[in-house]
Model the fold of this input.
Amino acid sequence: MHAMQYEFTLPADYAMDAVRERVARTGHLLDDWPGLGAKAYLMRERGVHGSPVNQYAPFYLWRTVEGMNSFLWEGAFQRPTDDFGRPAVRQWTGLAYEEGGAAHSPARVAVRHRRPVPEGVPLSEWAAEAVRETGRLAAGDGVLLAAAVVDTGRWELVHFSLHADEAPDGVAGEVFQVLHVSAPERERLRRGRQW
Done:
């Protein structure tokens, strides 16, 4: 599993209904994309869920790197780039993936929790705890899925989760509204640790 996200931070007075309409019009285009486990079309609105910004920020869980590369280099990624400019595309290597008890429910919110990988701890112990934490997160009420991914260039861990309801108390991180989920190969994402 490989994760990817890019963010378009929009002006404070941007009409976010334009993002909703865009996703309603084009979100289905990845509903059968080969190699895509899941794409969550995410949005943050200034003042909603504590967001300081307006932002369109899709998050991807790729089953194959070939699927991701096809998306980036064969034209599909050109559409948002043409509309909003070319963003930095963050990528993470998968550590763990789990389905939650609400796996077949529609997603309402997503939570992205980022934190640094601490210095001075054995990486094997740290990674094992990240895997266990993913399982605990997935076991929460209303969780569709949970993933742990790491950027070894920045030594940053990201826990990502989709929720059927509002994010429950105690789940730390940035909260996004989910506008649509394309999940053509979600059932083929390998569960548990990724090594």
